[in-house]
Design a protein that fits this description.
Elements (H helix, E strand, L loop, with lengths): L1 H5 L16 H12 L3 H10 L4 H28 L7 H9 L1 H30 L12 H18 L3 H29 L2 H4 L9 E2 L2 E2 L3 H16 L4 H4 L8 H25 L5 H5 L5 H10 L1 H35 L17 H21 L3 H29 L9 H22 L1 H24 L7 H22 L7
Antiparallel strand pairs: 1-2
Helix pairs in contact: 2-8, 2-12, 2-15, 3-10, 3-12, 3-14, 4-10, 4-12, 4-17, 4-18, 5-6, 5-17, 6-7, 6-15, 6-16, 6-17, 6-19, 7-16, 8-12, 8-15, 10-17, 14-15, 15-16, 17-18, 17-19, 19-20
Length: about 500
Amino acid sequence: MSQTFASRPAQAPPPNPRRGLGLAALTALVVGSMIGSGIFALPSQMAGSAAPGPLLIGWAITGVGMLMLAFVFQTLASRKPDVDGGVYGYARAGFGNYIGFTAAFGYWVSAWVGNVAYLVLLFSTLGYFVGPFEGGVTLPAIISASVLLWIVHAMTLRGIRTAAAVNVVVTIAKVIPIIVFVAIAAVGFKAGLFTADFWGNTVQIDGEPLGSTMTQVKNMMLVTVWVFIGIEGASVYSRRAAKRADVGRATVLGFAGVLALLLLVNLLSYGLVAQAELAGVADPSMAGVLEQQVGSWGAAFISIGLVISLLGALIAWVLLCVEILRLPALEGVMPKALARENSHGAPANALWLNNICVQGMLLWTLANESTYLNLIYLATSLILLPYLWSAAYQVLLAVRGDTYESSPGRTRDLIVGVVALVYAGWLVYAGGWQYLLIAAVFYLVGTALYVWARREVKATVFSKPELAVFGVVTVTSIVAVALMATGNLAVL
C-alpha cells in the first residue's frame, strides 16, 4: 500500500520556493514547539511521580525512545522526500488515506488543545503580577487569553514566514531564563539531598507512597512525552523547507538541545529542595525553586521567561495546527476549503477553524475549571498514535526494502524503527485506557470531515481495511460515550 500513496507527486508547489524556511527557522520551530510550558513545570510534576533513581531510568527510556523517533523523522525526510506533512504524510503513505486522516486529525486536535493549555498557564503565570488572572481560568484571564489568541491569529494571517521569523526571536529569548536557572542550580546543588531517598522507598506525596520502581517510571512517562511534543515540527513543514535535508538536521539538533536542558533542569532541582517539598511547589515550579535560592526576583525572572516561552510556543503551535490541516486538504483527505491560502500565503480557512476551536475550549475551561494538567494529558494522548504510525512506516520501508535498492543502512533503520515503534506502543500503554477512549470519540466526530473530503474528490470513502478501522473507532467511541454517561469517564 505504501507504493500507492508514497509515489504520488506533490499536488501543489511550495509557495515561493526560493524563500523557503532555512535550517535556523526549522530548528527554531522544533525548539519553539518543544520548549513551551512543560520545562517550567517539570520540577514539581516529576517530583510528584518519581524519586531520582526511577527518574533516571525513565529519562533514559524517554531519551532513547525520542532519539529513535528523531532519527525516524530524519530518515523518512531523506528517503521519502516526496512525502510531505510529517506524521500525516507518513501514516497516509504507509497505511492509506483514512489512517493518514486520523494521524492528521489527532495531531491537529492535540495541537489546539495544547494551545489552550498554554493560554491557561500563561495567564496563571501572569497572576503572579496581576491578581485577577490567578489560576488562569478566571473570567478576566479567559477574556484576556481570547484577545491574545486573536492577535496571534491576525499575525499568522500575514503569512507563515512572518510568524516563523517572530518565532526565531522568541525562541532565543525564552532559552535565556532556563540557562540562568541551570547555572544557579548547579552552584547550589547538594549531592546529599539528591541521594537521600534515591529509589523513593520512604518519601510520601500527599500522604501516599510513590510505589514500585516500575510504577514510578510509568507515572512520569506521560509528562516526559508532553515536554518532547514538537520534535516532529520540522517534518510537518517539509514542503516549505528551502532544503529538504535541513528537515532532518533541524529535528536532531532541536532534540539534542532540548534534551540537555530538560535533564539539567529536572535533575538539578532534586539537589535543591527535598522531594516531598518539591512536589508541592506551585506551577510554574521552576519559579518557586529559584525563589527559594535567590529570593523573589528569581520567581519574577522565571515567570517573565515563561510568559515569553508560552507566547513563542503559542505561535509555533498555531503554525503547526494550520499546516497539518492544509496538506491533507491538498490531497483529498480533508475538505478543499482548508487548503485555500490568502494573498500572504497563509491557509486562512484552516486558521479560522483552528482558532474557533481554541476559543470554544477556552470557554469550556471557564465553565468547568479544567486544569493545565488535564489539558496536557488529553493533548499528549491524542498525539501518541500519529507517532506510532510514523515509526511503523519506517519499519515497513525497511522490511520491504523500499528505497534501499542501491543504498546501505537498511538493518540500522529497521532497528531504529522497531525501537521507536516499541517506545510509541509503550507510551500508548502508559497513557492509560481512558485517554484512548476519549481520543476515539474525537476521531469519530472528525471522520465527518474525511467523508466530506472524499466525496468532494469523488473518491471511494473507505477501502475494506479502512472500513474495519472505522468500525473499531465507532465501537470504541460507543463504549466511551456509555462510560461518560454513567460518570465513569471524564473528558477533562
